[in-house]
Amino acid sequence: MNNARYLLTPLLPLLTDIAQAAQETSKSATGYLVQIGLPLLLIIGMIVGFGLLAKRFNLHSVNNKGPVKVLSSTPVSGQVRLCLIEAGDKQLLISVSNQQANCLHVFDSPVVNHTEKETRDFATLFSLAIKPSQPQARTGDEP
């Protein structure tokens, strides 16, 4: 502990100069704008970043409570997606782009059972993220 005091003693004038410079900067208008602007930019950046993450990992929920339900959606290219939707008792495979949507096939019998689809709400994802992984059972004779 005493050795740390001897190591930090030569740095003391430098630290006091930095503290004085910070006080002078905080008194000026530029310092005020920096104090207010940087946290504001940080918060806006975090909001945009979380929005991009939610879009990237498809964390937004789709309202599937009406007569037409989106069962699955897969990007084919940058502009085209294949969607499996359920309308009434039939399931349809459609191609969706920015300009149009085309019905590719109509299935008479269900291809995917939509009741087996897992929920992707925040509470479920958060509990899965913080849940510790279970160790796998080992086989064989180990001491």
From TrEMBL:
Top-rank taxon, per record: Bacteria
Protein's cellular compartments: Bacterial flagellum basal body; Cell membrane
Signal peptide start and end residues: 1-21
Transmembrane parts of this sequence: 31-54
One family name in Pfam for this protein: FliO
Keywords for this protein: Bacterial flagellum, Cell membrane, Membrane, Signal, Transmembrane, Transmembrane helix
Family assignment from sequence similarity: Belongs to the FliO/MopB family.
Name by which UniProt lists this protein: Flagellar protein
Species, as recorded: Kistimonas scapharcae
